[in-house]
Write a structure and sequence with these properties.
Blueprint: H1 14-31, H2 48-51, H3 55-69, H4 73-86, H5 107-126, H6 129-140, E1 163-166, E2 183-186, H7 188-195, E3 222-224, E4 235-236, E5 239-240, E6 247-249, H8 253-263, H9 265-289, H10 299-313, H11 322-335, H12 340-360
Antiparallel strand pairs: 1-2, 3-6, 4-5
Helix pairs in contact: 1-4, 3-5, 9-11, 9-12, 10-11
Length: about 350
């Protein structure tokens, strides 16, 4: 992730807490040979009025408890342990915290557990919690963009609802299915085209655990393109783009790898922003530089002009992919050195600036 969402996004977690209390009481009573409490007395008193009319929750609870009732003691322990493990967030985003998935549980219990938590998740919308949560996160953002890609604009709360992603998929880790600590806003492309139902903590090829970023507590990243090679990339708009090399500064390399693998960040940047916008960014710089005397008289002058443009003209922050534009201009400044490639960069940009001056004369 480029940055993390504000922890304010998971503070009002009462539905998850209430569901956990209900199940803990239900399972304990069954383990003691007692009948579970009836509806709605099984709902903690503080939230009874909020949930007592939710028939879908009532009915799916009955099916879940019937499945739990027929389990033997060892199987019941698996279920209760899975509840604890799947909600051990953010520890689960590290490598060593154990976590059973739905398929590790007794088969007879899997579908009832999944249906119960899918039902509970649906209540987040009906109770207004989903919209309230999104507004809190959105209002706290410095830049109204998806933290997972840094380029997709998030719609305002009063517009059509953005995706609320199960970071740990509900189909695999259903006991975290209503936990706002496991739910975060995500741009539609990131959610529906890239992450989909991928298991964020399991590497698909090997089945081994992997590290991942915490959506609510990750360091802000800085992107660098200085290792890119001008002129050796794709040809777009009659210009050869650089052969892009995306490097990240800040963050754990193993977590960055998971992020890249799941969301295809670098390839998306290249295909959807760096290549198609490169020519326009160069034109913008040359238009600016033509009005400044001596801006490209020497390599040093051109380098300083590039750095000034990146610092002063390109907007700060992440809006409108400005961080990619700034990194591109900084890369060209870095490449404008005494090497053979530096000579080519200098001659190319100087020629572009001189041509702009000629056309303006």
């Amino acid at each position: 992730m480029l940055f993390s969402y504000s922890p304010i996004g998971y503070q009002d977690n009462w539905l998850h807490d209430t569901i956990m209390q209900m199940l803990a009481s239900d399972f304990m009573r069954i383990d003691l040979g007692k009948k579970p409490s009836g509806w709605p007395t099984c709902i903690p008193a503080a939230r009874r009025d909020d949930l007592k009319s939710r028939r879908s929750l009532r009915d799916s609870r009955v099916v879940l408890l019937k499945a739990y009732l027929v389990l033997d003691p060892a199987e019941r322990t698996l279920v209760t342990d899975a509840i604890t493990q799947q909600n051990a967030i953010p520890q689960l985003f590290g490598a060593n915290t154990p976590c059973m998935s739905l398929t590790d549980l007794p088969e007879i219990s899997r579908e009832p557990i999944k249906k119960f938590f899918e039902c509970a998740f649906g209540l987040l919308t009906g109770l207004g919690l989903r919209d309230d949560n999104y507004k809190l996160v959105y209002d706290a953002l410095d830049y109204k963009i998806c933290a997972f890609c840094g380029v997709e604009i998030l719609d305002a709360p009063e517009q059509k609802r953005e995706s609320l992603d199960h970071y740990l998929p509900i189909a695999i880790y259903p006991f975290a299915g209503v936990d706002f600590r496991n739910l975060s806003p995500m741009g539609t492309k990131c959610n529906s085209r890239y992450k989909l139902k991928q298991d964020i903590i399991i590497e698909p090829a090997t089945g081994n655990r992997r590290l991942c970023n915490d959506p609510y507590n990750s360091p802000a990243l800085t992107l660098s393109l200085v290792d890119s090679e001008p002129f050796f990339g794709n040809r777009v708009k009659l210009s050869n783009c650089p052969k892009w090399v995306v490097n990240w500064q800040g963050g754990d390399p193993a977590k960055l790898k998971t992020w890249e693998d799941v969301f295809a960040i670098s390839s998306r940047y290249v295909a959807s922003s760096l290549d198609p916008n490169f020519r326009d960014w160069i034109d913008h710089f040359c238009q600016w530089a033509k009005r400044r005397a001596g801006s490209a008289d020497t390599r040093l002058a051109l380098r300083e002009s590039l750095l000034e443009f990146a610092e002063v003209v390109v907007p700060e922050g992440l809006s409108d992919s400005s961080f990619l534009k700034r990194a591109t201009i900084q890369m060209l400044a870095h490449r404008c050195d005494e090497s053979e490639q530096g000579s080519r960069v200098f001659e190319w940009l100087k020629g572009q600036i001189d041509e702009n001056r000629s056309l303006a004369a």
